[in-house]
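We were asked to recover a plausible sequence for a given structure. The inputs and outputs are reproduced exactly as logged, with field labels preserved.

PROBLEM: sequence recovery
POSITIONS: 152
GIVEN STRUCTURE:
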């Protein structure tokens, strides 16, 4: 992967023109429903913590993060277009996000993931996350979530 604008593939902070692709990607990859308004509000809360992965001028993946406490960040949403999975894009977004968090002095990172989402759980485990608790009936369809956590 290259890293500068003008390259074939790069990561940058969300821009308003990404909204349509991000909404499409969220609703085709994740199980909950995400409206334009919700995703726009998330992006506005912390622009530098809302990252997109651009490949040949198309937004093919995104990560929405938030500051959970003064020392802890949270990954709210992460999705990679199906045909671009297992190419290291999810890891590249997480690495970039964690670097930004460390620069701000944040010390740990948490997220919630469906207990049935084995591929995402394996992905986060590979990145050093551990399951610290289970949230029963966390999602709108009443499915449970694991809370996963790691130091930064
Ligand atoms: N099964 C097992 N291990 C996996 C899988 C999988 N399906 N996907 C990734 N991994 C592990 C592997 O060890 C992989 O390294 P390897 O390919 O060298 O073996 C490592 O994670 C890094 O994988 P990436 O290629 O960086 O992962 P990818 O770009 O495919 O993104 C993601 C992973 C984000 C989970 C992707 O599969 C996706 O978009 N899934 C659908 C949406 C989703 O479930 N998002 C997470 C919801 S939880 C939340 O948003 C907080």
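RECOVERED SEQUENCE:
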């Amino acid at each position: 992967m290259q890293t500068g604008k003008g390259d074939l593939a790069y990561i940058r902070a969300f821009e308003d023109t990404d909204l349509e692709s991000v909404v499409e990607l969220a609703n085709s990859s994740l199980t909950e429903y995400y409206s334009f308004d919700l995703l726009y509000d998330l992006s506005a809360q912390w622009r530098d913590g809302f990252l997109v992965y651009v490949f040949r001028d198309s937004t093919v993946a995104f990560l929405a993060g938030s500051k959970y406490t003064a020392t802890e960040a949270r990954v709210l949403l992460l999705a990679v277009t199906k045909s671009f999975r297992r190419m290291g894009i999810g890891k590249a977004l997480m690495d970039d996000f964690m670097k930004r968090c460390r620069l701000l002095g944040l010390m740990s990172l948490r997220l919630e993931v469906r207990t049935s989402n084995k591929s995402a759980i394996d992905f986060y485990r590979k990145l050093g996350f551990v399951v610290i608790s289970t949230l029963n009936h966390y999602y709108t369809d009443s499915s449970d979530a694991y809370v996963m956590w790691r130091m930064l």
